[in-house]
């Protein structure tokens, strides 16, 4: 729409354009004198500012968020932060530490609801569920709702009232509603169970931030060397279950999808191709790793074992093979050279 506005005003000196509703533009014929008067009026300057804001798009909202320095809330938000940095600030740096410093400078207070709810699962026996909508559904269940005081009332704006009746996952407004609701309910549950004293009927947001303090600036990481990135300090060390390697026998043309389908009834693994007949299995649960090792101990086609770099790495295997060939030729040369002398 901005392009249409600019083309019309540059090409035709006797027209005036005004934005109407979304993706609509009013074009009216005016005299050159009237056009000049409109351009120099306060209304004309206001129109120019609106078009500049329209041209900036989400960059304007990003600048507002950075300037406000308010808590930024997301769910599993690492990719979102990387996208914001790359598209609206600077290209992603090579240095991990520089990325952390930049994000912390832009957004001093981050709250990842994935990190918050993961920490509550064992403590409050919250079922382990995969997505934001499922987390919201679990928290809304009556078994978790504190009786005194109950959840805070979340009022929807008039143009978002449909969210109370209809689920719209992955729609920006609906996901924002879910994320904010999960944060508020999680903080309320933490506040109510953090003390034996009665909690006031209408807790302040600062009280909620206090109980969330240990989770601030810790963003969840999936399948990483750490469970979360601490944007305001050192990352906590993490101990992951061992990586598994699957050696396939008598199953021609097998691919990653087929290996995934084979194991998904037992647990959820990330599957990566390693070599012609070998695949890597990655899990975050020790229980799942032990279960698979037991179940496939004597399997006729799929031999599952713990990954050892010196044994399973294609690079190491190639190096060992080349070293073996060189050593064999050296031995033969020594034997044949000794015999000829």
TrEMBL record:
One of its GO terms (cellular component) is endoplasmic reticulum. Pfam families: CAF1. GO terms for biological process: nuclear-transcribed mRNA poly(A) tail shortening; priRNA 3'-end processing; siRNA 3'-end processing. GO terms for molecular function: 3'-5'-RNA exonuclease activity; RNA binding. Belongs to the CAF1 family. This is PNDC1 ribonuclease. It comes from Pitta sordida.
């Amino acid at each position: 729409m901005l392009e249409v506005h600019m083309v019309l005003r540059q090409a035709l000196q006797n027209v005036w354009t005004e934005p109407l509703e979304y993706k609509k533009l009013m074009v009216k014929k005016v005299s050159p004198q009237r056009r000049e008067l409109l351009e120099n009026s306060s209304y004309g300057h206001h129109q120019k500012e609106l078009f500049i804001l329209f041209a900036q798009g989400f960059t304007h909202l990003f600048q507002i968020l950075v300037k406000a320095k308010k808590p930024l809330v997301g769910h599993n938000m690492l990719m979102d932060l990387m996208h914001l940095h790359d598209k609206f600030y600077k290209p992603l740096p090579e240095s991990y530490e520089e990325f952390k410093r930049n994000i912390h400078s832009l957004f001093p207070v981050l709250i990842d609801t994935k990190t918050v709810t993961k920490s509550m699962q064992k403590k409050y026996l919250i079922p382990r569920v995969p997505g934001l909508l499922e987390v919201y559904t679990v928290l809304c269940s009556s078994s978790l709702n504190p009786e005194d005081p109950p959840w805070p009332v979340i009022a929807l704006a008039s143009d978002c009232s449909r969210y109370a009746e209809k689920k719209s996952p992955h729609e920006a407004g609906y996901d924002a509603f879910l994320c904010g609701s999960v944060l508020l309910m999680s903080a309320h549950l933490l506040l109510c169970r953090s003390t034996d004293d009665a909690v006031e009927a209408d807790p302040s947001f600062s009280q909620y931030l206090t109980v969330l303090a240990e989770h601030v600036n810790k963003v969840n990481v999936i399948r990483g060397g750490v469970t979360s990135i601490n944007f305001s300090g050192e990352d906590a060390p993490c101990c992951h279950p061992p990586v598994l390697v699957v050696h396939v026998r008598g199953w021609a043309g097998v691919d990653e999808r087929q290996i995934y389908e084979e194991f998904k009834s037992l647990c959820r693994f990330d599957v990566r191709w390693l070599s012609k007949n070998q695949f890597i299995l990655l899990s975050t649960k020790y229980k799942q790793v032990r279960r698979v090792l037991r179940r496939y101990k004597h399997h006729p086609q799929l031999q599952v074992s713990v990954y050892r770099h010196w044994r399973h790495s294609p690079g190491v295997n190639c190096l060992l093979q080349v070293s073996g060939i060189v050593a064999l030729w050296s031995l033969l040369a020594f034997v044949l050279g000794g015999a000829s002398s």
